[in-house]
Design brief:
Length: 342
């Protein structure tokens, strides 16, 4: 089957864009409803693999010319793409969970982020002029064939993982592996990007609450009052975007017992002593817990002592650690980057 170079490059670009977009959705999802995004991400990524034979022919033809601009960058883009695919497969099967002290999931995400600017450069440096025939019925049939082949590869990968009893068969649908469930001491202390573990002195520490009734501060002992629902226990699953999950018994104070909504409020912001913060829709108030204990013991520093947020159904970066402030806001909950920038 003869395929024009512009069609191959266009198909690769579409596959990469879909892989990145669905990858972002897959990282954000924490409930079963997001399973579609996870599957779509895998199929889009494997579509790149299906297109490799055609791309090799295109690359060989290009190398026959004496002047190929920025060939080094093209090689780097190829290496990053293959490395991103390889780390994704390694994590999916569980054959390689970490490399160089880093989890393969983080390496996979880092590779994807690094290849985005290179892919943009490639499109700008080698613009392809689409033709009317590129949207023909034949092209659509080829696209359907590539998608079907990628879907078959995706299914085969899972079948091999299951039949060979590889570690990947125990993954959660998000791709995360169980680590330390009901054993808080064994649960990782992952933090987001450049955040660091603070040394919080519980004596001067106060939780500031700003809601429809005004502003007030609560000490750790005041948060232990029974009228606030202190000691409320939830079993909730923390699913970290770095590739692990753990189910624990968390105990503390329901956020709904502390926050009284105002007429103008549209969201509630939970902040950390480090400056880290996430904004939640008001409808989430009954589903949020401020935990002071886990597994029957006080939180460890790396797990958010003296106070951390428990947000069932949301990925780990929503579970704010070292909380020192909760405030209502008249801005909508989506008035923030989909992922924290620091």
């Amino acid at each position: 089957m003869t395929v024009a170079a512009r069609q191959v490059n266009g198909a690769l670009l579409v596959a990469l864009l879909l892989a990145v977009a669905t990858g972002i959705l897959a990282e954000a999802t924490g409930t079963g409803a997001g399973r579609v995004a996870v599957v779509a991400h895998g199929v889009a990524a494997l579509a790149v693999v299906v297109l490799v034979p055609w791309k090799v022919r295109v690359a060989r033809a290009a190398l026959r010319y004496r002047k190929v601009p920025s060939r080094v960058l093209s090689y780097l883009l190829t290496v990053l793409t293959l490395a991103t695919l390889a780390t994704g497969v390694a994590h999916t099967t569980g054959l390689v969970r970490s490399a160089g002290g880093l989890l393969t999931m983080w390496l996979h995400v880092a590779g994807a982020l690094a290849l985005i600017p290179l892919a943009v450069w490639h499109v700008v440096a080698r613009p392809a002029q689409l033709r009317r025939t590129d949207l023909s019925r034949r092209t659509l049939l080829r696209a359907a064939t590539v998608t079907a082949a990628a879907g078959a590869l995706y299914g085969s990968l899972f079948a091999v993982t299951e039949l060979a009893r590889l570690p990947g068969r125990r993954r959660r649908f998000t791709g995360s592996y169980e680590t330390g469930s009901l054993r808080p001491a064994a649960m990782p202390g992952t933090i987001w990007l450049d955040d660091t573990v603070p040394d919080v002195d519980p004596q001067p520490w106060r939780l500031t609450v700003v809601d429809g009734t005004g502003r007030r501060e609560l000490s750790l002992s005041e948060l232990g009052r029974s009228e606030l629902g202190a000691g409320t226990s939830w079993r909730a699953l923390l699913d970290c975007t770095s590739g692990w999950y753990a189910e624990q018994d968390w105990a503390g104070v329901p956020v709904a017992a502390l926050v009284t909504p105002s007429a103008s409020a549209r969201s509630v912001v939970v902040r950390s002593v480090t400056g880290y913060a996430r904004r939640f829709p008001l409808r989430d108030l009954p589903r949020l817990l401020l935990a002071t204990r886990v597994g029957g013991a006080p939180l460890a520093r790396r797990h958010g002592y003296p106070l951390r947020l428990v947000a069932p159904g949301r990925r780990g970066f929503w579970w704010v650690k070292w909380v020192d402030r909760i405030e209502l806001s008249d801005r909508p909950w989506w008035w923030q980057p989909p992922f924290p920038l620091s």
